[in-house]
Write a structure and sequence with these properties.
Elements lengths: L4 H13 L1 H15 L4 H9 L4 E2 L11 E2 L1 H14 L2 H12 L5 E4 L2 E4 L4 E2 L4 E2 L7 H4 L16 E2 L9 H12 L17 E2 H9 L2 H15 L1 H9 L18
Antiparallel strand pairs: 1-7, 2-8, 3-4, 5-6
Helix pairs in contact: 2-4, 2-5, 2-8, 3-7, 8-9, 9-10
Length: 244
Amino acid sequence: MQLNTELLQKLKAAAARNFDAYLQKALSASAEHGAFGMEMLDRLHEQLPRTSCGNCGRCCNSVSIFSLEYHRIIREVLAHWQPERVRRLVKSALRFDLRQAEAAGEKRLRCIFRDDTTKVCLVHPVRPFACRIFGLLKEDGTRECDQVNDLIFPARTVTESFLADLQSRVLENSESYEPWPGKGQIHFFPFEFWFYRYVFSPERALQIYREILVPMSTPLTRLWQEQGVLPELREDLYEDNGDR
């Protein structure tokens, strides 16, 4: 997929001109969202096994998250970060082209919340599902990363149906959009998509997603080239049958 360099240049110019306005819009949108769904999201996150890792940062690339998780992160930032640190965050969101990287020969967009100097996640307490489930012990006994370890023993195996059930509750309270016409609606987008959705509009955010974010990320490009659409969300996986 071809990167739209002209659109990227326009975003750079707009970011330089309108930084304060974009900062205000992004923060106001999440503040106005209120606390709806936040307690539920925290409780769902708490149901996952607790783990630790070696903080190598190999997996700390931009991941797709729910809109509810986006608001949870921004509200954490609003509550606990100093103003200048918030400004640096928004500047990084506006200039995501500066976070391009390569990992194992693939193009990646580095996570906006990864501090490579201190090797920590700046929003670890409210990190999204995509980060929390990485490296958990799977049904077949494998993990994506050998640096992830359980903090409670014996290690708990996590099933796909359990993860689907947890995330379905978030899905019910999150926005969804159709990235390409006829390809179906999805709820999962990178942090940067949600940022532009609230700074500009869903339509402009989708254009940025299709023409900049997807070409910048090998995993996203491969997803859309090979599958064309995310796996179908089967309703039977999202019914609370009480058998957990």
